[in-house]
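Figure S4 source data
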Amino acid sequence: MSTMTGTSEIQQAVFEILQRILQTPCTPDMIDVELFDENLLDSFGVTQLIVALSERFDIEIPPATFERKEWSTPHAIVASVETRITQQHPPHK
């Protein structure tokens, strides 16, 4: 449950989580794959993803705030996670 700040670390962790949830290999060349349009992610998968990301990055992701367009691709998920980490765990000055 450690907080990560590097984009490559976050991206790697998101791919690991997606691979586990989707039960299909996830590689960096899939960064812009439309997860919903390709029927890779459904509502059950979203729930699993919210729980896994919340635990992995120690962030809160209330299901009511879920926006499909913000989670449409692995790239969008990484960006969303980065934003939440920054908002919920601002760097110490």
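Figure S5 source data
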Amino acid sequence: MNRREKWLAEEGARGVAATEPIRAFARTLQGLEEREAGAAAIERGCIWRVVMVDGVGLAGHLDRRPNRINAIVVDGVVVDSTIG
């Protein structure tokens, strides 16, 4: 493994560890209404983004933000979420 690969592996491990509390919080938003979940995420200091509504994907950037919660909404309720 060269220096760059080693650095990327170490940074990746730190990044995963740092996002775990946000990932756990994002799971608690599942089952909430979209507005309620969004307000809770913003109050927590996260960036809130809905990426799919009722099976229709919405436009979004491909940049990765470790404090951003991406939500999938069906019938006004958050059914899944990811970080990034």
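The longest strand covers residues 47-53. The helical segments are 3-28, 34-43.
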